[in-house]
Amino acid sequence: MTPRTKTAALAAATATALLLTACGGTEGSDDAPIAGADQGTESTPEPEETDTGDEPEDAESDHPEIELPDDVELVFDWDTPEDPDEAAALKALETFLSGTALAIVEQDPEHPIYRNYSSDGAQSYARGQIQAWMDGGWTLHGTERYYELEVSRTDNSDEVLGFQFCIDTTGMHGKDVDSGEPLEPTEQADGEGLYRFQYVMRSAPGMENFWQAQNVDAETEAAQCR
Q1: Model pTM above 0.85
Q2: Which one of 31, 98, 162, 203 has the fewest CB atoms closer than 10 angstroms to its CB?
Q3: Contact assessment for residue 158 and residue 119, using Cβ atoms and an 8 Å cutoff
């Protein structure tokens, strides 16, 4: 497979993984504006005990330190909310997203960091995304930007928050795991590689101010993100 063909396949695989939940491909997904906000789950898993990351007990606790390779960067281009619950949930979401990237880099679909910070549909989504990159023999190479953050609350729960934001994936091109060679970028039409994501963050049961990504939905070529 030539580098250009590999890149085209990578784009297809990534788009498929990104849209798994939007198409109902993960368990626990919901098309409501804040999925699962008034449903809850019977058994939301608590963060697992591992040797690879700390488990914060409150909003002031440290999250795991995630070190990505020099050629991989996630840019969270937004301000921290003033509300302490929103700030804690957003930090947990950033840790989940960075942990998912780390799992791709380390080629580990069961990496404990992203699993500690997720449950239900969000965890299934992340595992599917990681596996899609692994199946192609690729790892990350480049920069991904997160921006246009909006926070929403439900009327009936202080334990559920919605985060909507854009992702610009046009700078993330991938790299062949075996050779270590970056894949050749392909030309993209206007709007390709731009996604509007919505995550539901829920306070984990039995842990003070510890948030987990619960569900996720995505929109491709989002006009709001251009």
Answers
A1: no
A2: 31
A3: no
